[in-house]
Write a sequence for this structure.
């Protein structure tokens, strides 16, 4: 539930964890100058607004945001809609929103089902999405 | 019961102050505002402090049920504040929830525990989790207050009883019986010394006329003056109240009879004041004991309502049987949903009887529910609870068996702290899962054996019980287990009243100890599923979880199963949002059926179908359509039914784990 600080490198700083009921959790950390929003568990119409808040909040102080969906076990159309709108907003503000969704991940599968893969800036792994150290 | 009373070291709890108060400590105004908003639904009075120093002042002025304490404050931080709070006997027992926004939350939490704090929560916190934790602690506090009051009252009654018994003994020794003779012709009475004493007349003086003496009596029966006794014709007894010349009053029993050969009347008078008072005090103590039993019953009734939501793949039975004698024990059971689809089954036995055991039981049950919100490994929960007892309830001894169960795979993980072994009933008879048994809780902190895992096959049943079921005075414990095995083997594993039947079958004589039994039967996988939920988008997650729990029993492939659940959720979400216009309520019903290669869902609502606007709702339906191999939307007279068929990986295996 909580990222173990000892597993993090020197340039990572855990800045907050929030759990959303028993279903979803959002962890934010700074890494290589980017704000990494790590999203675990289930997100649907009932709790997607928390994800929007986290992204909006992250965008306030950072130009580079990495949305890590590697550990997202469920996401639905309302989560997709919100990721799309955040991605569009980021483009308009010339901010950089990168999305990590490994090939076998649930997120990649749902992006494929909803046919929006091509409109997002998708990465297979967190290391690919981060600017090189 | 003294341990209950002394826990309220702040002195006599005041009944008028039944509302528990919460102290919010944070140096930042916006955080206090947020906390106030989160706790608003609880409707509890709060007080705010903007520094550790201010918090300590508040604690001196008022009593609090709970402290929410920000860790990161200037001057005196949360941990330093907590240390001071814990040092003061008046405030040492108040639970603290640390609020921390900082990195290393786990290390900090450890630091928190060394002060005897009860919990911590990391910022930004989930309002729901915070609210649940606060509610759990307030609940606990209220129960403790109630128990402390009951315990005080009971102590008072027991003291009264002791005094009354002494008085009764004195009264009997003195034998307050006076005898008298009455001559109606003279209207005078001749009487013994005790008669003088009872009437409060000096022994050496002549007595006043009989009518005057007896008119000082007032008969209990009809309130008439006592001189009517002198005109009675038959042998009779009268209860009466005597008012003496000095104004004091006594309760007396007057016995009269008329000599058959003469007109003279003889009788006795007995002062029963002390006896009556003793009897009254005894009655009151009996009422108090009965009241204690009722209070304990409240706890046991609460214990009889486990937490967990219904789990479709299992049948759970439970039964609590109080001892026949008027003592109540500390047995309890609980079933807690762990959020990931698994459930935690608990059976425990707090040593001792009556209010102390029941109150400790209630407290441990709440603590365990709180602990299970962030720790799901049985052994770790046992460790944490042990620590809780050492800090919060030293002197309490508990045996406990924790079993984590995954309804999809049947995987069981048990940790046993000095409790009788788990029994399994199935086609091959009865077996015991001995596992590794650690010491009971409350003995000594230290290493415990590892938890033990096994798989419960479908149609098998696990039986958890307290020792009252198997222990018989003067018989070896193993004989009890043999008797239990014999008894169990006569019962059906899928019986819907298994727990109750087991208790009545194995306790033929009077129960000396209370008994709790909790059973878990794993059902054979069924190919049908149906449920009805309120048409509220927030319910969709719960619906999906129960549908997932059902669908995962079939080996339909992880991706296919999740796709099907996504399609179902989108249709249900659509029904919740679009069938019922804002402000109206209704329900959505889901029926499902699995065959070799598909799962079919029917989603019914009674609302007005409106085509979703382009955007969110439209996308959801399109996604469902892409997943489904077939999909239809039919309007009904009232409502809409959506039918979809989703592919699964071929050949699902039904049943066996």
């Amino acid at each position: 539930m909580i990222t173990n600080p000892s597993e993090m490198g020197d340039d990572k700083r855990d800045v907050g964890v929030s759990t959303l009921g028993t279903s979803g959790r959002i962890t934010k950390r700074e890494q290589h100058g980017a704000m990494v929003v790590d999203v675990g568990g289930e997100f649907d119409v009932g709790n997607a607004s928390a994800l929007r808040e986290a992204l909006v909040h992250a965008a306030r102080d950072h130009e580079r945001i990495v949305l890590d969906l590697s550990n997202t076990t469920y996401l639905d159309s309302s989560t997709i809609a919100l990721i799309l709108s955040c991605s569009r907003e980021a483009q308009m503000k010339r901010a950089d929103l990168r999305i990590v969704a490994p090939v076998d991940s649930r997120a990649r599968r749902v992006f494929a089902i909803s046919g929006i893969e091509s409109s997002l800036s998708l990465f297979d792994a967190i290391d690919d999405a981060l600017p090189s150290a | 019961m003294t341990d209950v009373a002394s826990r309220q070291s702040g002195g006599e709890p005041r009944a008028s102050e039944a509302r528990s108060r919460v102290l919010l400590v944070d140096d930042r105004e916006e955080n206090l505002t947020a906390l106030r908003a989160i706790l608003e639904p609880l409707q509890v009075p709060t007080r705010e402090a903007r520094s550790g120093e201010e918090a300590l002042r508040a604690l001196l002025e008022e009593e609090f049920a709970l402290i929410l304490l920000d860790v990161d404050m200037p001057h005196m931080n949360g941990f330093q504040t907590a240390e001071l709070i814990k040092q003061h006997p008046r405030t040492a027992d108040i639970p603290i929830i640390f609020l921390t926004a900082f990195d290393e939350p786990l290390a900090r939490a450890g630091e928190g525990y060394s002060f005897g704090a009860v919990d911590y929560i990391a910022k930004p916190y989930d309002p729901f989790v915070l609210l649940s934790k606060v509610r759990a602690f307030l609940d606990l506090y209220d129960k403790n207050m109630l128990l402390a009051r009951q315990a005080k009252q009971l102590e008072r009654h027991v003291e009264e009883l002791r005094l009354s018994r002494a008085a009764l003994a004195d009264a009997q020794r003195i034998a307050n019986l006076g005898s008298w003779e009455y001559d109606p012709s003279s209207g005078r009475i001749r009487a013994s010394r005790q008669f003088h004493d009872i009437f409060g007349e000096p022994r050496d003086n002549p007595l006043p006329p009989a009518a005057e003496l007896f008119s000082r009596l007032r008969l209990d029966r009809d309130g008439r003056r006592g001189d009517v006794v002198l005109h009675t014709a038959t042998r009779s007894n009268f209860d009466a109240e005597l008012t003496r010349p000095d104004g004091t009053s006594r309760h007396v029993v007057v016995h009269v009879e008329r000599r058959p050969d003469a007109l003279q009347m003889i009788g006795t008078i007995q002062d029963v004041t002390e006896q009556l008072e003793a009897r009254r005090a005894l009655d009151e103590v009996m009422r108090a004991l009965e009241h204690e039993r009722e209070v304990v019953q409240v706890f046991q009734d609460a214990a009889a309502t486990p937490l967990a939501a219904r789990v479709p793949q299992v049948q759970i039975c439970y039964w609590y049987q109080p001892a026949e004698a008027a003592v109540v024990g500390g047995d309890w059971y609980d079933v807690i949903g762990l959020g990931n689809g698994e459930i935690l089954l608990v059976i425990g036995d707090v040593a001792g009887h009556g209010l102390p055991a029941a109150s400790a039981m209630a407290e441990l049950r709440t603590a365990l529910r709180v602990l299970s919100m962030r720790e799901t490994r049985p052994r770790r929960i046992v460790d944490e609870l042990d620590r809780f007892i050492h800090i919060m309830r030293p002197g309490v001894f508990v045996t406990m068996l924790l079993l984590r169960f995954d309804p999809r795979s049947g995987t069981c993980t048990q940790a046993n702290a000095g409790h009788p072994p788990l029994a399994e009933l199935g086609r091959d008879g009865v077996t015991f899962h001995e596992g590794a048994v650690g010491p009971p809780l409350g003995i000594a902190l230290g290493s415990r054996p590892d938890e033990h895992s096994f798989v419960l096959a479908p149609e098998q049943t696990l039986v958890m019980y307290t020792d009252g079921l198997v222990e018989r005075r003067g018989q070896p414990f193993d004989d009890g287990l043999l008797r239990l095995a014999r008894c169990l083997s006569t019962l059906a594993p899928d019986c819907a009243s298994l727990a109750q039947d087991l208790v009545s079958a194995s306790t033929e004589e009077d129960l000396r100890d209370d008994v709790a039994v909790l059973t878990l039967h794993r059902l054979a996988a069924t190919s049908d599923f149906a449920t009805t939920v309120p048409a509220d988008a927030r319910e969709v997650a719960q619906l999906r979880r129960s549908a997932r729990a059902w669908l995962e029993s079939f080996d339909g492939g992880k991706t296919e199963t999740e796709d099907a659940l996504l399609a179902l959720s989108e249709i249900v979400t659509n029904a919740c949002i679009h069938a019922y216009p804002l402000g109206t309520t209704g329900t959505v019903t889901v029926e499902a059926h699995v065959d070799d290669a598909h799962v079919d869902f029917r989603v019914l609502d009674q609302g007005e179908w409106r085509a979703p606007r382009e955007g969110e709702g439209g996308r959801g339906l399109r996604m469902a359509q892409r997943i489904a191999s077939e999909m239809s939307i039919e309007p009904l007279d009232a409502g809409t039914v959506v039918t979809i068929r989703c592919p699964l990986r071929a050949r699902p295996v039904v049943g066996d784990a």
Chain B has a mean pLDDT of 80. DSSP finds 16 helices and 27 strands in chain B. Chain B touches chain A at residues 101, 103-107, 122-126, 128-129, 339-340, 374, 537-541, 544, 559, 562-563, 565-566, 569-570, 573, 577, 615-617, 619-620, 622-623, 626-627 (CB under 8 Å). The two ends of chain B are 49 Å apart (CA to CA).
